[in-house]
Model the fold of this input.
Amino acid sequence: MSKLRDLIQSETFNRFIIAVIILNAIVIGLETSVTMREKIGGVLKFLDGMALTIFIVEVILKLAVYRLSYFKTFWNLFDFSIVAVSLMPFGGSVTVVRAIRIFRAFRLISTVPTMRNVAYALMNAIPAMGSVMMILGLIYYVFSVLATNIFGEAYPEWFGTIGASLYSLFQIMTLESWSMGMVRPIMETHPQAWMVFVPFIIITTFAVVNSFVAIIVNSMQKVTEEEIQAERQEIHILIDEVRKLQKDIQDLKARS
Done:
């Protein structure tokens, strides 16, 4: 059992699983092409089946080593769920099965340490991002009511309702054709329209959205610091063990 544990925890095994995940994602992507399915459909199906078999064997090996403690780790649960979903029949719908299989590519997140750290950082940033989302939602609502009242009659397709205004403001926030496609035509009938849209862009695009980036960067920094701290603790533990071994050796020499 110790040899099996060493195998599944080895860097070689981890790299092999990463390679299989990447290859499987490429195969699933190729299967979306009708031409590729006609030419090498059998080969692609075989490779996909082999990849799924490898994933199942990996889960079985880890269950054999870790037993019930396997399910105590979030990433093990994540991997198990992805493999389990791949085995579901979905009523025989080929389209659904093909679509669901691509979720296996998400296993890269649990397998590659750097991607796992980014995922941790994003999850840790969710509470703070929720507060920013509330502020952003409030800003959207205020400006959508303002835009509906001012521009609704002249441009009902853009600002006729609160919903239409929200969608139009979202387009403006993304800066997609906001000037030539929307704001400049409005300014032909409402010359002061820039006094509404320019502050909205400054507040949302350059202030609030950048707050998301700042929160994520801060969360990434915390995750990195925690990782460094954990490595330092491991080093201290190793140093203590080495010192104990040295002391034991000295005691043995003194007795002899």
Notes: The mean pLDDT is 85. DSSP finds eleven helices and no strands in the chain.
